[in-house]
Amino acid sequence: xxxxxxxxxxxxxxxxxxxxxxxxxxxxxxxxxxxxxxxxxxxxxxxxxxxxxxxxxxxxxxxxxxxxxxxxxxxxxxxxxxxxxxxxxxxxxxxxxxxxxxxxxxxxxxxxxxxxxxxxxxxxxxxxxxxxxxxxxxxxxxxxxxxxxxxxxxxxxxxxxxxxxxxxxxxxxxxxxxxxxxxxxxxxxxxxxxxxxxxxxxxxxxxxxxxxxxxxxxxxxxxxxxxxxxxxxxxxxxxxxxxxxxxxxxxxxxxxxxxxxxxxxxxxxxxxxxxxxxxxxxxxxxxxxxxxxxxxxxxxxxxxxxxxxxxxxxxxxxxxxxxxxxxxxxxxxxxxxxxxxxxxxxxxxxxxxxxxxxxxxxxxxxxxxxxxxxxxxxxxxxxxxxxxxxxxxxxxxxxxxxxxxxxxxxxxxxxxxxxxxxxxxxxx
Amino acid sequence: xxxxxxxxxxxxxxxxxxxxxxxxxxxxxxxxxxxxxxxxxxxxxxxxxxxxxxxxxxxxxxxxxxxxxxxxxxxxxxxxxxxxxxxxxxxxxxxxxxxxxxxxxxxxxxxxxxxxxxxxxxxxxxxxxxxxxxxxxxxxxxxxxxxxxxxxxxxxxxxxxxxxxxxxxxxxxxxxxxxxxxxxxxxxxxxxxxxxxxxxxxxxxxxxxxxxxxxxxxxxxxxxxxxxxxxxxxxxxxxxxxxxxxxxxxxxxxxxxxxxxxxxxxxxxxxxxxxxxxxxxxxxxxxxxxxxxxxxxxxxxxxxxxxxxxxxxxxx
Lengths: 428, 316
Known about the structure:
The structure holds two protein chains of two kinds.
Chain A: H1 21-40, E1 90-92, E2 111-113, E3 126-131, E4 137-140, H2 141-146, E5 150-157, H3 174-178, E6 181-190, H4 191-198, E7 207-212, E8 219-223, H5 224-229, E9 232-237, E10 240-241, E11 251-253, E12 266-272, E13 287-288, E14 294-295, E15 304-309, E16 321-330, E17 336-342, E18 350-351, E19 353-354, E20 364-372, E21 377-385, H6 394-401, E22 414-417, E23 423-427
Parallel strand pairs in A: 3-12
Antiparallel strand pairs in A: 1-2, 3-4, 5-6, 6-9, 7-8, 7-12, 9-10, 9-11, 13-14, 15-16, 16-20, 17-18, 17-21, 19-20, 21-22, 22-23
Chain B: H1 2-20, E1 29-30, H2 33-36, E2 54-56, H3 57-67, H4 69-72, H5 100-103, H6 107-117, H7 128-141, E3 150-152, E4 167-168, E5 200-201, H8 206-211, H9 233-239, H10 257-263, H11 270-280, H12 299-310
């Protein structure tokens, strides 16, 4: 559990010719002088003084809402070509290969819309709470921001994350295999607080219907037990208001549960005594088993992990040498207890370091030191959560669930490192 | 005196209990039944929530042809958008076809979804009767209702869907403490009986064809993507016309790049100085010959070329 000081010198990698030239030059000189200096103590070129050190920079607030450095322009959400029939009912994946730590930057949080991105004025927005309650109520955003608040770190993972890979390898990078996954600090009101404020009828109430204010008016049944436990009515994400893509100005977050339950642009909660069997919990988001029967209300996201670096699409330029293996682990049932890493396709495993904080139903970052010997390798990670559940092999999942269920593929992921340093998505 | 003290205490108690009341419970404005009616559109399998109304298969065909066929196909067969018909009996096969006809367990779900979300580009545009009618028509396209059927709030929940018994809630994923269906063990050593074999990988060319160059998906200065397509600095010098007047080792119209490297070896800001010179052109440093201003080469390419020149202009 304890974080050791990571070894130094990870930037020894020779930059590739595909690198942006300015960046490449900089690193080549950096690396070159370091090597010369170390090797001979001989006459090395003096380090060039960069232009930035000789100029007056731009005034403060040149960018009143800050943007990433211009060199980061390629660090973006992406759609997977051909996955969806329209761009409005579609998915933009988080570039997990580019991220550090456990927090997903707000601009990179994955986006799943069912009828496009609505434009909602928070002054006009209302949340109706009605059904089996003593006093049905309409809340303005002012009302909601005045309610007692909490902040919690949680992951949101779409139930269909990794769903393209049930039968075979289908996509080229971790952005597309696992990028319907994000983690943020959410601020809002415990759903139980709001249910208190309307006097929910605990004798008869069993379920909640959550409905969005988008064109699809997306609806999902939420069991009351989850609603009263840790479900959140959220307006804040990583310190600012939600982004429109993530439900501005108000969304539900049901921790540990497949993402579609965390209804965005939330405008209505109805309390009832039976589930609604909406389209998004019958026709879709239900898991088809080999016998033709669908598992319904597969809410929980079981424990899962993936190595984000090195991962498919990257090339290890030093043929051999030190590489840090790092990735993410999470469980909808609680905390991550342990992550093991294999570099030989599962023959032997080594326990990775877990970065604090290790929180319930949040992403956990793991790291493992690896000295690559330059021969082909098969990288895998395998997590264990605090229920003792061990992340399964794809083969084990298929034996029970076949290959057509779309949802809840939490199998161990394999990345193949070829002798030329190329990293590829493979299944064993 | 005694009584006034008691009175004071009593007042204080009232004040204290008032301020201790959880005032936030009062937030939110009471909502009247008629107010919520326009939002309260959900429908349950038992028919709770269905508004009074009716529509026939025949009327539904008109609604469908006008509002739905353009996307879903004349017979609900569209593969561009979702097909609305077919697949009954296919769910247990190797090629399951999930449609409202083959997978839904209740017809109320179809009504509810069309009512809230369709037509895709103009949701909630249909009247209640039109939703009943087009629901009847879609069920008819699936051979679930006969051509002369009429649906209303009483008959819709009675429709027998082919997949009525096709769902189960007997699984471990409804509750955080549910029992998982797969058990792996955390073996640490000698875990495989046979060496690992790759059973699936992307076919060659697939990624490039669908996703294009993957290079930009990564931070180049960390672990770089394949460099295959990137031109070398020498190639950039050629394609930008520099080699018309320069060569790596011989003096031509302009100085040999190797000579340039030697001259500027100890000049700290050589890249910046030379970038300016090449952009502006000029003469007098190496002789009387003139270098015209080099305006078409991009900043990025020029920096790469100059980096190469200053490093001695070695052959690639």
